[in-house]
TrEMBL record:
Keywords: ATP synthesis, Cell membrane, CF(1), Hydrogen ion transport, Ion transport, Membrane, Transport
Iron-sulfur listed as a keyword: no
Annotated protein name in UniProt: ATP synthase subunit delta
Role, per record: This protein is part of the stalk that links CF(0) to CF(1). It either transmits conformational changes from CF(0) to CF(1) or is implicated in proton conduction.
Species: Chryseobacterium formosus
Listed Pfam families: OSCP
TM region(s), chain numbering: none
Membrane topology: Peripheral membrane protein
Xref: InterPro entries: ATP_synth_OSCP/delta_N_sf, ATPase_OSCP/dsu
PANTHER family per record: ATP SYNTHASE DELTA CHAIN (PTHR11910)
Gene name of this polypeptide: atpH
Species lineage: Bacteria, Pseudomonadati, Bacteroidota, Flavobacteriia, Flavobacteriales
Domain of life: Bacteria
Amino acid sequence: MLTSKVAKRYAQGLLEFTTESGQTEAVFSEMKDVVKIMSESADLNKFFLTPYVDANKKTEIANEIFKNFSPVAQNLIRLIIKNGRESQLKNVAQQFINKVEDINGVQRITLTTATQLSNENIEQILRSTNLVNSSATFDLEVNVKPEILGGYILRVGDQQVDASVKAKLDKIKKDFQLN
């Protein structure tokens, strides 16, 4: 997913501020909560995207939802809403999380399979490729998409290994069309 420049800039500004004030870990945890809340609540997303609700009402609702957050996180959320960027709130939070994880050396790994796999199978897939640094910590996200038919798609950072049956069938189909 492409992330907007706006989200990257807000996240970078937040990172610089929290680094100077020593609040990076606390805000990191809160930004994970923002991503979780925004991912789970379609109604909240619709509310923030509604153009006829004014910024004051959106700020009031955000203050209630995020009332247990630190002043830094609350001020960021209010600033985003005040500037009319509430549609980017989740992206800003995710970009901040990504930046902090990059600093801490955490690898982001996405594994897509056709069916749910056991932990042993997941570990075997991760060990079978040289993309995964075994000594580094990683954040693993496992997705199940039956449309890949079998195999797996492993994405580590910006690199990807597509060992899915669908990809192999598409390659065979392309080869037949060329010949």
